[in-house]
């Protein structure tokens, strides 16, 4: 779980039309979007207890309602006016993210570049498989595209939550990091994965894992000559070049190739 920070970046939420009613295709469900407001805390608390195995403190529910640094968008059933889905996120400068999350962007980006962290995204069980989670995520992404210094949106997910992992992968999120013993749930330490979607020109750091992944991709595409060339340039750069500038220049070229 990402800790809150006073250095969060405020988003312009005036662009949203929270009065319109939308009818979902292939469904009789009419929905409307709105941001959380005072009085929602109890309802959101019940939802989060149903959706997630983590217990959030009462102050956290007050924060996401009152603090404008949070993008806290709810989708409601027009007939019942009840919240049936919710996404909460906030933007932080990379330098203010948790230490384990500061490596999601390539080093070429300054620490003043920002990333958006999704704290929660959930839909009431009876309303799932109607595209509500996609709509909530789409609204967040549309906001982030207008915030050009935000280079990535990321989240943590329990390693065993296959349904959530498949959802984020289908929405172009990439697996970046395995976080052992990240969650403490009912006295048991459980692993988490970090998933990232890059935007506004952002991209991940280049690692040996990326090299291996790309090598496998080249092999499956039957391009052994290109792969061997990449390896040759990589080894030449690492072991034969003694000039620092030349080494750095060649490494960057190989990063682009791979």
TrEMBL record:
Statement: the UniProt record of this protein carries the keyword Transferase: yes
This protein's UniProt keywords: Acyltransferase, Chromatin regulator, Chromosome partition, Transferase
Its EC number(s): 2.3.1.259, 2.3.1.48
All copies of domain N-acetyltransferase, residue ranges: 31-200
Pfam families, alphabetized: Acetyltransf_1
GO-annotated biological processes: chromosome segregation
Reactions it catalyzes: L-lysyl-[protein] + acetyl-CoA = N(6)-acetyl-L-lysyl-[protein] + CoA + H(+); N-terminal L-methionyl-[transmembrane protein] + acetyl-CoA = N-terminal N(alpha)-acetyl-L-methionyl-[transmembrane protein] + CoA + H(+)
Family affiliation: Belongs to the acetyltransferase family. NAA60 subfamily.
Protein's name according to its UniProt entry: N-alpha-acetyltransferase 60
Source organism of the structure: Adineta steineri
Taxonomic lineage: Eukaryota, Metazoa, Spiralia, Gnathifera, Rotifera
């Amino acid at each position: 779980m990402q800790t809150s920070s006073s250095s969060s970046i405020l988003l312009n939420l005036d662009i949203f039309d929270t009065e319109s009613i939308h009818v979902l295709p292939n469904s009789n469900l009419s929905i409307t979007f709105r941001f959380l407001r005072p009085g929602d805390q109890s309802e959101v608390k019940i939802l989060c207890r149903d959706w997630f195995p983590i217990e959030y403190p009462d102050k956290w529910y007050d924060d996401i309602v009152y603090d404008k640094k949070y993008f806290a968008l709810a989708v409601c059933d027009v007939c019942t006016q009840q919240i049936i889905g919710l996404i909460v996120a906030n933007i932080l400068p990379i330098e203010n993210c948790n230490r384990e999350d500061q490596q999601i962007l390539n080093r070429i980006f300054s620490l003043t570049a920002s990333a958006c962290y999704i704290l929660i995204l959930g839909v009431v069980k009876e309303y799932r498989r109607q595209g509500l989670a996609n709509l909530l995520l789409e609204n967040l992404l549309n906001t982030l595209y207008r915030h050009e210094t935000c280079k990535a949106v990321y989240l943590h997910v329990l390693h065993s939550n296959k349904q959530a992992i498949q959802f984020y992968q289908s929405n172009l999120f990439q697996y970046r990091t395995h976080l052992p013993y990240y969650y403490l749930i009912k006295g048991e330490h459980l692993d988490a994965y970090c998933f990232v979607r890059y935007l506004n020109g952002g991209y991940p750091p280049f690692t040996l894992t990326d090299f291996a992944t790309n090598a496998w991709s080249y092999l499956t595409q039957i391009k052994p000559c290109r792969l061997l060339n990449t390896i040759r340039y990589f080894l030449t750069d690492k072991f034969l070049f003694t000039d620092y500038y030349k080494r750095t220049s060649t490494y960057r070229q190989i990063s682009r190739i791979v």
